[in-house]
Amino acid sequence: MMKTSFGLLSLLLMPTLVFAGDAPSLQPALPMDLTNHIVGYLSLAITFLAYVAAMTEDVIELRKSKPMVLGAALVWFAICIYYAMQGNAKAAVTGFESNLLAYVELLLFILVSMTYLNAMEERGIFDGMRIWLLNRQYSYQQLFWILGTLAFFLSAVVSGLAVGLLMGTIAMAVGKNNHRFVGLACVHIVSATNAGGSFSPLGGISTLFVWQHHILHFADFLTLFIPCLVNFLVPAAIMHFFVPKEVPLMSKQTVNLKRGSKRIIALFALTLVITVLSNVYLELPPAAGMMAGLALLQMFSFYLLKTAKDRETDGVIDEPRPAAWLDDRNYDIFQKIGNLEWDTLLFFYGAMMIIGALGFVGYLDAIAHYLFGEINTTIANILIGLSSAFIDNGTLMFAVLNMHPDMPIGQWLLLTLTLGVGGSLLAIGSAPGVGLLGQIKGIYTFGYHMRWMPVILLGYFASIAVHFWVNARFF
């Protein structure tokens, strides 16, 4: 039975029909074009099924990372088996390793960023922000703009998913008695977060990819600030007139930050500075600077743990805030790493490896020939941006990078802009939207977000027009 199965697998992976005297060369030209081969068709089928399973996560109750990781394994095994049968397994392994390296750099960058956010949340920083906003007695309209502005600027340096969930939590807390405000605030937060993450390589995955591949320098991204600001302001200005004017009730709680909270914020800021400077002046990958920042956080966590135990040993634990010191006795930074959004991180592994496999097979070259050869490059970049309403922008950017299109800086900036803000058109088009769908169920829904798609689309095209105006020198 095993011999029969292996024989069937061999037939599937062999060229269409190979007769005597027509055996393939032991050293085929690389890369091999398998777009019209059974391996290529199998790769497309697996990719389609994996994405369908991931997009219907809520229906089939299967976490989105599982079908994507499995799909990536199946596609690359099929490719490697075929190449091994042709006597050139090393070529497929090299292709796999190059895609794996790109993912590892992304993983380490996001890992450090989310670890810092978890540490700040544990120290009570974000809860303190919520209480402070409530005690200021802002109206819902004022809170609408405050949350959006915070999301816009925070997402320039922090993961969009983390910012979206944080701002969503605050919106739910301050507007728990007003579902209309919460729904509008969530749409606003998604739009603001995606816009803010598009003018900085530190905040968005698609921008990070472009930065990692040395296509744009750090300063180049800042030229997108005005187009991104327009993208944020246009829909927000229209939605403002639909926000309730009431003032929420004041919170009875007081802000009580834990020991070391402000120093963790300072360490995170220092980490970002190290990351940017080491990349600009030393040409180190961004992950190197972020890992240096993780080391600083680990050393500071050791300090918190050590000083808390020393005070307990010295018998001076009875201070005005003894609970803070008692909490620090069991402080463990590795718990913050363990609490990361691993489902999302593994989803990106599957997506990047599958897209890389399709590029290795030859499909991305064929798509690139059409998009960037047969139609206008500007139209192609706008269409790719619109498609990010359905497909994750990081996955799309990785796919484009694997196409190796020859574009001027202005077009790369346009692609970065459209992919970053295009995900705001639908709730499932970006990580903040998907996160808020799961966090604020019944109030913020796919259908509710879709009601505001026309005004978000208006902001989308307005930001493109402003980009051509303010960045005309790059074209």
Automatic annotation (TrEMBL):
Belongs to the NhaD Na(+)/H(+) (TC 2.A.62) antiporter family. Keywords: Antiport, Ion transport, Membrane, Signal, Sodium, Sodium transport, Transmembrane, Transmembrane helix, Transport. InterPro entries: Cit_transptr-like_dom, NhaD-like. It is found in: Membrane. GO terms for molecular function: antiporter activity. GO terms for biological process: sodium ion transport. It holds the Pfam family CitMHS. It is a multi-pass membrane protein. GO terms for cellular component: membrane. The chain crosses the membrane at residues 36-56, 68-85, 100-119, 143-174, 221-243, 264-282, 288-305, 346-372, 378-400, 412-432, 452-470. Residues 51-420 form the Citrate transporter-like domain. This is Sodium:proton antiporter NhaD. It comes from the Bacteria. Residues 1-20 form the signal peptide.
